[in-house]
């Protein structure tokens, strides 16, 4: 019996702790990797799923920033700017996606259990 899908990597959970919907979406993306794309190694498929999801978050944050700038409200602009920055950092291979060891370990254990 395969292990449950891998949890969202700890670094991303920490970075996005104030955005639970985003963590849930990342988890759904990881859940969808189980059993999909047999020709692609599970770790690669999981990384691609996370990257796609995080790229979507960046797009959403940029749209929110554009709307905030149109409002000309400095507080709203500041919050939207910080959110867009956070999403870019989360997607960065040097920051949010830099340490995926927990994901690797989980997927390796899953492969060994088959």
Helix percentage range: 55-70%
Secondary structure category: mainly alpha
Principal-axes shape call: elongated
Low-confidence residue ranges: none
**What count of structural domains?**
1
The number of E-state strands comes to 0
CA distance, first residue to last residue: 7 Å
Quickly count the helices.
5
Approximately how much beta-strand content do the residues carry? under 5%
The H/E string reads: HHHHH
User: Which radius of gyration do the C-alpha atoms yield?
Assistant: 16 Å
**Mean pLDDT score:** 91
Q: Characterize the biggest β-sheet.
A: none
Structural commentary:
By secondary structure, the chain is an all-alpha fold. It has one domain (10-112). The chain has five helices and no strands. The protein has helices at 10-15, 20-31, 42-71, 74-91, 101-112. α3 (42-71) packs antiparallel against α4 (74-91).
What's the topology here?
Elements: H1 10-15, H2 20-31, H3 42-71, H4 74-91, H5 101-112
Helix pairs in contact: 2-3, 3-4
How would you sum up this structure in a few lines?
By secondary structure, the chain is mostly helical. The chain is built from five helices and no strands.
Main attributes of the structure:
mainly alpha, 68% helix, 0% strand, elongated
